[in-house]
C-alpha cells in the first residue's frame, strides 16, 4: 500500500485530484529537468520507442499534457478516447479510488472535447513531439451502435495525419452497447471497414478483459484477418474481485492484473505465428517487477494509468532507474 504522506494528492477527493492534474503536470514541466529516458528501446514499423512504457488511454483525453508526459520520460503517448462530437461525462459518480487495494473504479463514459479540439491541439504540438503518438478513438454516446463505424471513420479521416497509430476502443464498459461490437456477427464488417477503406494508418485493437478464452481467440482471428496491426490487453473489467464497488463501471489497477496477464498469455500463444503484430500490456502494472514480468511474458510495450495515480508522475523516472542498470544475463527478454 502507498503512503499518503509522500503522495499528498491522495488526500484530495479523486475527482479533485483528477481535475487538478493537468495544471500540476504543466507546472512540473516548467520546474523539473527533462527526462530523456532510454531503456529497452524498440523499433516497430517506422516508429522508435526510446523506452517501452507509455501512458494509457483516458489519462490525456484531450491532448492537453502530451508534451508534459514526454518531458516526464514516457516512451510513447496515447491520447483519447476521442469522440467525434464533444460530450460530458456520464451523470452521477464517475471515479473512486481504493488505496488499500491499489485500484480505481470509473464510469466516465468518454468525456471528450471532441475531435476538432484534439486536432487543433495536436497540430500545434506535433513538431515538438519526439516519441510515438497513438490516438484512441470511440463513438459518441448518442450514436446508435449500428452507426458506430461512422464515428470511427470520421475520427480517422480528420486525425490520420497526426496519429502514428489509432487505438480502436470498443472495449470500454461505460458506453452502453459498445462491447457488442466484439460479437462475431458484427466485428468482421466493423474492422474491415476501418482497416481497408480508411486513409492508410496503423490500427491497434484494445481488448476487454472480460472476454472468455474462446471469445478472445475468435476476436484475434477476426482482427488478424482484417489486418489489425496490434493489440492492447486490456481495458478495465466489469468483474468484481473487490467487494463494495458499484456493479456498473470499470475496475483497474492491482485487481485487474490477473485478468490482463491471463489474456496476454492466451493471446501470445495465438500471436506466435504473427510476430509483426504489436503487443501492448495494460492492466495492473504498478512496479518495476510488474514491468519485468510483462516483458518476459512477451509484451512489446506497456501502459500505465493507475500506477500514475498512486505513485505519481515520476513513475517513468523511478522505473527507468531500475531498468537502465546493466541487465543480468537472462533477466529480461530484450527486444
Ligand atoms: C479514470 C479512468 C479513465 C479511463 N478512460 C479510458 C478511456 O477513455 N479510453 C480507454 O481506452 N481506456 C480508458 N481507461 C482504461 C485505461 O486505459 C487502462 O486500460 C486501464 O485502466 C488498465 O490499466 P491500469 O491498471 O494501469 O489502470 C480508463 C481508466 C481509468 C482508471
Defining key terms:
335 residues, alpha/beta, TIM Barrel, eight-stranded parallel beta sheet, three-stranded antiparallel beta sheet, 10 helices, 13 strands, globular, disordered C terminus, binds flavin mononucleotide
Would you spell out the secondary-structure blueprint of this structure?
Layout: H1 14-31, E1 42-44, E2 47-49, E3 53-55, H2 66-71, E4 77-82, E5 95-98, E6 103-106, H3 115-125, E7 133-137, H4 148-159, E8 165-169, H5 187-197, E9 203-206, H6 213-225, E10 230-233, E11 250-253, H7 257-271, E12 278-282, H8 288-296, E13 301-304, H9 306-311, H10 315-323
Parallel strand pairs: 3-13, 4-7, 7-8, 8-9, 9-10, 10-12, 12-13
Antiparallel strand pairs: 1-2, 5-6, 6-11
Helix pairs in contact: 6-7
Task: Tell me briefly what this model is.
With 335 residues, the chain is α/β, with parallel strands linked by helices.
